[in-house]
Amino acid sequence: PGWRDPLLVRDRLRADPGARDEYLAVTGRGADGGVSATRSWLDGAAAGARAWAVSSGWSPSLDGVDRPGR
Length: 70
Prior knowledge:
This protein is mostly helical. Helix content is 66%, strand content 0%. The protein is built from three helices and no strands. The chain starts with a helix and ends in a 14-residue tail after the last helix.
């Protein structure tokens, strides 16, 4: 599903300080690449996050998600 990769990347960034540091280096704090560098990083990060999901036993969590009607 289309929601899987964004959740994987989010959860990997929460769990992996090294991945988080890479993300911060690309997306902020003086990064010169802008949107294209961020998009490129996210494309690669999704593949890395899928591998992380397998090795960590990741499963989607709805913690913090607003679910109308509940």
